[in-house]
Design goal:
alpha+beta, Glutaredoxin, 2 domains, four-stranded mixed beta sheet, 4 strands, 51% helix
């Protein structure tokens, strides 16, 4: 759990230190570092679920599973580019779920390469947001 928040906390601390060090123009530094912390935090992503629950839900509704981890710039890019469609996916944080991490390693020759998107039982490493959007079942 703490590992997910390490990078955001470091960004906030760095922003505060920069704001204190440069007292007359430190506020923009603080704002920039707080924004970076927000982008790299688990709060940026829809609520993560366990890999077993994601597989169960995906089997029922046909939605892809996205394995991700905080601080991954490719995961952030995918999340931002998907916009509201991101909520229609099943997200699994591999730093919080050992089963999810094991599944990603099995799909990537032992590497924890994310984002790994699993659709119809097949893993796809770092797919484009448009491709992921195309894998979503039609909205009801």
């Amino acid at each position: 759990m703490m590992r997910s928040w390490t990078l955001p906390i470091l960004f906030v601390v760095a922003g505060v230190l920069m704001a204190v060090a440069v007292t007359d123009t430190g506020v923009p530094f603080l704002v920039a570092f707080v924004l970076l912390a927000g982008l790299n935090s688990p709060l940026m992503f829809p609520r993560s679920i366990a890999a077993t629950e994601a597989r169960r839900r995906s089997a029922l509704d046909g939605r892809p599973i996205v394995y991700w981890r905080p601080g991954c710039k490719y995961c952030i890019r995918l999340r931002i580019r998907l916009g509201r469609d991101a909520r229609r996916l099943h997200w699994v944080n591999i730093w919080r779920d050992p089963d999810g991490a094991a599944e990603v390693r099995a799909a990537n020759n032992g590497n924890e390469t994310v984002p790994t998107v699993v659709t119809a039982g097949r893993p796809h490493v770092n797919p484009t947001p448009d491709w992921v959007r195309g894998q979503l079942p039609p909205s009801t």
